[in-house]
Amino acid sequence: MKKLLHFLKPFRLPIYLVLILILLQSLAELYLPTLMSDIVDKGVVTGDTDYIWKIGGFMLLVAAGGMICSITASYFSARAASGFGKSLRSKVFSHVGNFSLNEFDQFGTASLITRTTNDITQVQQVFIMMLRMMVMAPMMCIGGIIMALSKDTKLTLVLAVAIPVLIIIILIVQKRAIPLFKAMQVKLDKLNRVLRENLMGIRVIRSFNRIEHEKKRFDEANWDLTQTAIKVNKIMAAMMPTMMVILNLTTVSIIWFGGIRISNGHMEVGDMMAFIQYAMQIMFSFLMLAMMFVMIPRASVSAGRIVEVLETTADIQNPGDPIKPVDQLGQVEFQNVSFSYPGAEMPAISNISFKMNPGEVTAIIGGTGSGKSTLINLIPRFYDVEKGKILVSGTDVREMTQESLRQKIGFVPQQAILFTGTIDENIRYGKKDASEDEVKHAAEVAQAAEFISEMPEGYNTIIAQGGTNVSGGQKQRLSIARALVRRPEIYIFDDSFSALDFKTDAKLRAALKEETGNSTVLIVAQRVSTIMDADQIIVLDDGNIAGTGTHKQLMETCRVYREIVMSQLSEEEIV
Prior knowledge:
Elements: H1 2-6, H2 12-44, H3 49-97, H4 101-107, H5 109-151, H6 157-200, H7 202-207, H8 211-263, H9 269-311, E1 332-339, E2 349-356, E3 361-366, H10 372-377, E4 387-392, E5 395-396, H11 402-407, E6 409-412, E7 421-422, H12 423-428, H13 436-445, H14 449-453, E8 462-463, H15 472-484, E9 490-494, H16 502-515, E10 520-524, H17 528-531, E11 536-541, E12 544-549, H18 551-557, H19 559-568, H20 571-574
Parallel strand pairs: 3-10, 3-11, 6-9, 9-10
Antiparallel strand pairs: 1-2, 1-4, 4-5, 7-8, 11-12
Helix pairs in contact: 2-3, 2-5, 2-9, 3-5, 5-6, 5-9, 6-8, 6-9, 8-9, 13-15, 18-19
């Protein structure tokens, strides 16, 4: 929790102001019953009209002062809580941005979204209530008891019976509510996950007529969360009437025993009226505490989930004394590299060794699950190797900063991702200060210029969320243009030509050959036709290298490669 308190430091001044204002408001509210008692006993009973007007006017001033303090305190508490929430969201977002893929796998995307939005909102709301209620309730309770004792000591025995009953009810509610609040946040994660899957996979769902099935999945997750929420609300609903009954019984008891004490001459009518007001203030302070004790468990669960994210250290860290490569620019070398995913029984790749040089095209091919994507994810340090090492420009990638390493790489992922914004902005994502000519040149090389020119706004055409207004092939070409505009030392294409027709594929590869002539190029592909002209082809099979060489060499020496070629090409094409 100390991590969360750290975010309150910039808001110390408004918090202190709130505390002072609430103190003044509490003093005003505690003083008003005493003034009312004086009006009844010294004004109404004696018929002194001037005294009534004098004290009544003073009561109005005190009430107005309390109101001003209350409004001002609400303003500053809202500002402090909103700033706290904004600061915390920014910190969580930037912290999650430093996670490796391993941490994303650990938490899950849906849970991280819930923690960054709903959980922080829960903490923010309770923080506002804490500034207002948690501070005011003890002041009102302690002040009310002191003032009640000053009016009549024996009558406070009524409160000595009512207060322990209230405390017992609060403890019972808290004990039953905490497990339910924990369950609610977990079930909210599940609901977000189902909703996210539905929104992202809407085309697949509709094409397979699985709309009713997905509705059922969502309804089940929604109903599960609803049932838990109903249980919590039942507890809340039962608590409030119970506490109001105790409150009203306490008032009746005060009037009953107070009337007896008045008739015996031990108490004034005004004192009894003031005592009732103080009793109400004491009881309402416990009501406020009860509300807090109900909300704090949920906020506590949310705070724990936020802290869990903030205390999670990324597996991949920058070295303390990073090395800046100065020679062998663009060269990539794998030296006996092995890697296993967390919890996996078998390594994804084992003992991988090869070298890629600038000016050469290296291709990787293999069956599904052979480790192709895993291998290329290790180069930009999306994951770290378990054994061996990867050298980029002659330096171990773990001895370089992640920023300097990734600055050397133009990465085109297997799943083309576009961002909301214009086509121009999406291409410039690879190089934010790229000139207009550089953007257009990258689009031309990526064979994207033609379809961009046919769009209504050209390069200023807006890409919809997820790139839903462009085809799969257009997405891939824009992703390639984004990497090309960067002009990196190393290009990595992870099956980035799969959605292109053969004609566009051939034109793109020819253009790339001219554009990337001095760079190291790594292509992962399923199509043999895409990689036949590569300078070096690496064949993967079950995480191991089954063969290395040119197309002609592998046809003679590698059985796995030969089987892949024969499954895709006709005899005439092979010859």
